[in-house]
Amino acid sequence: MPVRFDVVIVGGGISGLVAARKAAQQGKSVCVVEASDRFGGAIQGQILDGVTVDVGAEAFAIARPETLDLIKALGLGDRVVAPRRSDSRLIVPQGIFPMPHALLGIPTNPLADDVVAIIGIEEATKAAHLDELPVPESWDPQITLGALIRQRLGDQITDYIATPVVGGVHALHPDLAEAEAIMPGITAATTKHGGLSKAAAAIRSSSGVPGAAVNGLAGGMSNLVDALVQELQETQNVELVLSSPVTDVSRNQSAGHIGWEVRTATQKFVGDRVVVALDAKNAARVLTSVPLIHQPLSRLYVGDVVVFAALISSNLLDEDPLGSGALIAPSTPKVHAKAITHASAKWEWVRTAFGPSRHVVRLSYGRDGVINENLDDLARIAHADLELLLGASMPAFDETHLARWTGSLLHPRVGHRANVAELKAAAATTDGLSLAIAGLAGNGLAGTVSQAHAAIS
Ligand SMILES: Cc1cc2nc3c(=O)[nH]c(=O)nc-3n(C[C@H](O)[C@H](O)[C@H](O)COP(=O)(O)OP(=O)(O)OC[C@H]3O[C@@H](n4cnc5c(N)ncnc54)[C@H](O)[C@@H]3O)c2cc1C
């Protein structure tokens, strides 16, 4: 016999849990069906030498209120912490530099000292001249971010500043990213302000809090998932089902009841409403019986990324030589990682928890969503990367954890906005089905949380 609920939620990441909370607060009976043996999806804590550290999302943007509001509502407001330092570095073949003042790798002034330090005064002057040229009144709506930056600021800024930043944040090369999908309004702003760097400066200063400003939770972001699950279990009428991969979501018309049916290999759940809170790839897989939704979903690009977290005992990291972390240009010789976070430099709670000269670093792999490294050999690769980045020989790692995130990052490649518009139009005309697809509202927790709220009207 199928189990019947008002709302069935497919996927127990933050999105599914937030949607469940809202539906339960409305007095509905709710079930969350999760494939893996834990909730939280891309928010995951992992124990290294007795301390839980984040191996997925580690922070939330504070320019938007959604995540902070949720954290406070769950009673975790006193755990919110600002980073101890947030001065990331840029690693390029020329060396290691402070991150230039920029909007997602678009410098706000190509002649600023921090840009000149990286590409030299000659190239910086060329970039400034390029950006002074007349700006088109209209743009190719599918222009890539790379083409836009190359056109206005030249190849050097694109390759040595924008590429590592976009690659670090979105795991995507700017030459593949649709400019308007990754940065809505950037082409119109370029026209309006008479240049790309001026547009970047205007957008940065118009948002009161810098877009990159983040906070975290002392003890890790996994506390948010634990608090949500605890509340759903203890105070809400929510059935939480683990280790149950959903294979199919389809319309259900039985015994005069019209709704949705959610199937796993062994179970069937029926709901008046179903919320699909999965990454795009898995969502397309389970929605084959709804072609209008399946088709645009299956055209969305997703990327894989690996986070290699390691605990290492060395006083060479005591002075935070990489600041809070670094984004690494693909052209940097021999280094495989695309980014590194020095968690003990970034978060005071990590530093305190492990004590003097014991450091947590997180190296991430997967340029353009493809992992080229042999994962069985990743500990050796990560160790070699760390030595290259620090320019010194390092002791063996004390403890490590490899977290593989498959399909977790939605890639706004060329055609993204057209696919999303088709998907949203189809979803709007499909009664009883809500989509909360990871990354559809941006690859960050703020968009994810607000999208999950919107899935429950
Ligand atoms: C490595 C990494 C670091 C990040 N860092 C940050 C950060 O610092 N700050 C920030 O704001 N954002 C960050 N993000 C993005 C943020 O984590 C995500 O936007 C957010 O967690 C997505 O949540 P979600 O619930 O939509 O999807 P997911 O977290 O992907 O959850 C989907 C869930 O669905 C489950 N599932 C999959 N298939 C099925 C199936 N067939 N049946 C049932 N269940 C299924 C999965 O197991 C998973 O639990 C990061 C993402 C990654 C991958």
Please summarize what this structure is.
This protein has 457 residues and is an alpha+beta fold. 37% of the residues lie in helices and 25% in strands.
Q: How are the elements arranged and paired?
A:
Blueprint: E1 3-10, H1 14-25, E2 30-33, E3 45-48, E4 51-54, E5 60-61, H2 66-73, E6 80-81, E7 89-92, E8 95-98, E9 102-103, E10 106-107, H3 113-132, H4 145-170, H5 179-182, H6 186-193, H7 196-206, E11 214-217, H8 222-235, E12 238-241, E13 246-254, E14 257-264, E15 268-276, H9 280-286, H10 291-299, E16 301-313, E17 325-328, E18 339-342, H11 343-346, H12 348-354, E19 358-365, H13 378-390, E20 399-411, H14 416-428, E21 433-435, H15 445-455
Parallel strand pairs: 1-2, 1-15, 2-12, 7-17, 15-21
Antiparallel strand pairs: 3-4, 5-11, 6-11, 7-8, 9-10, 13-14, 14-15, 16-19, 16-20, 17-18, 18-19
Helix pairs in contact: 1-8, 1-15, 3-4, 6-7, 9-10, 10-14
The structure holds flavin-adenine dinucleotide.
Residues 10-16, 33-36, 41-43, 56-61, 245-246, 277-279, 282, 286, 305, 307, 405, 408-409, 438-439, 443-445, 448 line the site of flavin-adenine dinucleotide (FAD).
